[in-house]
Amino acid sequence: MVKKYLLGSIAAMATMMFATSCSNEDAFDSAQDINVAKYEAKFIQKFGKPSPTQTWGFGSSSSSTRAINPIFDFPSDCDESKFLADVPEGVSTYDALAPYGGYNSGVSYIENRTSKVGIWGAWDGSKSSGGTLYIKGNCDFTSSEFYVASNTDIYLVEGATLTLSAAQASDLQSGCNFYVARNAKIYTEAELVLNTSVHIYNHGTIEVGKLSVNGASVLYNSNKVKVNGELSTENNNSVIVNDGEISATRLHTAGSSHVQNNADFTISGNTDIDSNSNTWVNNGQYTTRNFNYTAGSCDVINNCHLTVTNQFYIGLGDSPTNGFRMDANSGVEANSFLAEGPGYIFMGSNSVFKVANTATMDITKDNYGIFGPESGDYAVFQAKDIVNGAADPNQGFVANYFQNVYVVAETHFAQGYSDKSAAQQAAGEIGAQPYYHVGNNAFVYTGGEKPGITIPETPCNPGFGGGDDFTPVIRVMAEDLTVNDGSDFDFNDVVFDVQWTATGAKIRLNAAGGTLPLKIEDVEVHAKFAEANPGKNITTKTMMNTAENARDAYVKPIFEITGNFKDANDKNDANLIKVMVNKGTAEKPNWLELKAEKGKVAAKIGVEPKCDWCYERQDIERKYSNFAKWVRGEVETFY
Length: 639
Known about the structure:
The protein is mainly beta.
């Protein structure tokens, strides 16, 4: 039995104490409730009632926001009511409406059909309309006819399959809307062509030989799209949005088409972006063999993680809007890199562009190149070797680095000046056309030297380790619910820092002032301290790193936990890491979760890693006089 057990007063606690004479299970639950209620009552007595808006330091953080939005406004998915479990009651069969082999317009359904379907359409005074068709069961038209008129709504209910021939898959009529429910499927071995405002909203599966989205058509995928060949989108505001999984051998974007990935997008061959009017936005995990950005657009944006297993190529026109943009905390990983012609890479704070092997620079013009953020934390562009790729060995400005970016490589081609001979340079003459330009707080590190910063690895970022291997985003300080008349609130029963990883989080235990068994997820705190301090006798009764002026008396263990902690850049997500205390015994454990719920009394708080914890028996309000005001929402922070 699980209960929500934060109660509002001592009276409520007392009521529960008199209600413990039921079953053993009820008594056990009441014991849990009593522990929490006593703690809550003492907390309110000391600090006051929490503000209804108090989030205990776990409020959303701007570090994970997707700050770079495209000019194009992508559509949303359809309402869930469009994805049906079955055909609605009262709908006629197709044959009931089609005594002559078809009908003009109406509402009908087909089930397990392989024979002809013809909905010819009717003029309603402004457009042709075929009405509504529901598809149920396995409907295979590869050996028969399937035609539905323009502006027909087609519903594939759960479990349905629509199989089309090559001719049918290339002849979807304008204005048709397809709603594919869970466990439903559209299949063709040939190319599925969406021309002239065809809309497919997929919550099931689409498996096709090729797929083209053209002429203001929309593919909105919330589950799985498998394209065994090329996926292309061209012209007239055609749109692909992925909230699920899409795979293909190639993605080709042209004209004024728009692609947004919010989940998993995998291209086994080339991603080719070759229009000045394209939008390509990655908010999730995008993987491709080659990424070829060959025509400038201001809306080629990586907000999360792009993996290029072979070469990232950028070769754009001469325009100040042409660039590849990276949001703060985002990442690109490529095997190799080639920059040709003018063009920009704009990198946000703490973003990382990591090249496993060679980065070849041939930018051809000053003022283009790789830019860090105008303000905030540095970005990092890292490669094994950075080489000069200019066809003309005397060409200047083949690489340019500007504005709060660290460029890190084992080797970087030597500086020189294209407008000076070797003899002139040897004589100390400095020309006006350097081979590379570093300015506005940009720095180049080679030969194993690195800047002293660490950017944590996250699902959106490959990370960079130049400084301390552990760079926390938040510190969590907790109380173990033990309160008596003389109790303090020092919030040091366990203190730990959180750094996000690709699979969960890395935890550093700073202190343990509690004397009860405590777990972070499945890791017992005192046992982990004992493991890191083999020469010391540590039990659950040992208080570590909480004595005055002894913050580092015990080695602070670091360990990893796995789990789905949402965005993994947001400090708020640290609240999802479970902290548990055993208020029972080893023989009869009574594990309680230490919670921090909005507007309710909290047993843990989130603070910046710079916030120092209390030493033993030092009440938090004595160390930080604004704590009670913070609880009540009268100040923004207490430290």
